[in-house]
Amino acid sequence: MKRFLTFAALTFLASPALADDDLMKVQASDDVASTMDALEAAVDGAGATVFARVDHAQGAQDAGMELAPSQVLIFGNPKLGTPAMQDDPLAGLYLPMKVLVYEDANGQVWLAYEDPEEMFDELDGIDDDAEYIQKMTGALGKLTQKAAGG
After folding, report:
1. Cys-Cys crosslink for 103: which of 7, 43, 68, 87, Cβ 3.0 to 4.6 Å?
2. For 112, what's the count of Cα atoms within 13 Å in the CB-facing half-sphere?
3. CA distances from 60 to 9, 54, 66, 98 (A)
4. CB of 98 within 8 A of CB of 61?
């Protein structure tokens, strides 16, 4: 049991992303705009399509309100998303993929995204062990790490 607990602790500490239920968070080393630029470049470099970049703080400012820097990148790759939608058309509610880059109350910048396995968990037609889920998980991990400066 002691060996298991040591392994579990080391695995958690070595993990680049912090889990918060279904959300994965990666600490960034730069500001929101620069981190988002890096994420967009990483997505483009990986051959995925960027569909939109939403600036929530700008939207708040346009409405006469204040919000800490916060942007969402919406992107996808039909080679990964289409098989999920073939297995269950409701996967289209979760696709394309989204990554939020935001500044928290302490001024720390984070990248956050929903874990694909958890994201599709309620869909009957999608198996937790589907190859595309593993590929989505790996891609999101690599893209966010690259954008975070790691």
Report:
1. 68
2. 15
3. 40, 12, 6, 20
4. no
User: In this predicted structure, what is the pLDDT of residue 13?
Assistant: 34
Alpha-carbon span 46 to 34, nearest angstrom? 18
pLDDT of residue 3 exceeding 50, the answer is no
What pLDDT band is residue 137 in, cutting at 50, 70 and 90?
very high
Describe the chain by its helix, strand, coil percentages, rounded to 5.
45, 25, 30
- Asked if 67 contacts 60 with a C-beta cutoff of 8 angstroms, the reply is yes
CA distance linking residue 110 with residue 89, whole number of Å: 31
- Residues facing residue 102 across a β-bridge: 70, 110
Cβ–Cβ contacts within 10 Å for residue 117, how many? 16
Q: Residue 11: pLDDT band by 50, 70, 90 thresholds? A: very low
Average pLDDT over residues 47-76: 98
CA distance 18 to 144: 12
